Amino acid sequence: MNLEEKIMEGIKQAMKSHDKVALESLRAIKSAILLEKTSGAKGELDQAAEMKLLQKLVKQRKESAEIYTQQNRADLAEAELAQAAVIEAYLPKQLSAEELEAEVAAIIAQTGASSPAEMGKVMGVASKALAGKADGRAIADTVKRLLAR
Q1: Where are the extended beta strands (E) located within 1-149?
Q2: What does each of the 149 residues of the chain score in pLDDT, given as a tens digit?
Q3: Residue 86 in contact with residue 26, Cβ under 8 Å?
């Protein structure tokens, strides 16, 4: 069952259970998928593109929540974070900080990088290997920290 089918099932369940937050979130995912499929001549999305799309949606929600929090709009921030949580349920389990550090250390050893100047080489491999499992910023921060040692 691909992501689009899972989302359609989720929409049905949210409608039956009258879960407005889940319904809004799932409709946003469905909309983003349709937009991505129709932009250009892509047709079907592969799993990597689906995960990237979901991560983008979660990141947007979290950034919006942060802005709302800064503007003392806790009600709006709460709604954005609730939607982010629903969308995150469709992403693979994210790596913990310790697991991420271990994975990045292994990639650094594999590539033979030893200085911060070689960060690009490590990031290329790490981004592909850890796609969907960790946020790009977290990967970059970990690579930078480990190479600076």
Answers
A1: none
A2: 788 899 999 999 999 999 999 999 999 999 998 888 888 656 777 887 888 889 899 999 999 999 999 999 999 999 999 999 999 898 888 888 888 888 888 888 888 888 888 888 888 888 888 877 887 888 889 888 888 87
A3: yes
Q: Rounded to an integer, what is the distance from CA 136 to the centroid of its chain?
A: 9
**Alpha-carbon distances, residue 100 vs 4, 76, 139, 148 (angstroms):** 29, 31, 7, 17
Share in percent of the chain as helix, strand, coil (round to 5) = 75, 0, 25
Start-to-end CA distance of the chain, whole Å, equals 44
Angle between helices 136-147 and 97-111 (to 10 degrees): 60
Amino acid at 42: K
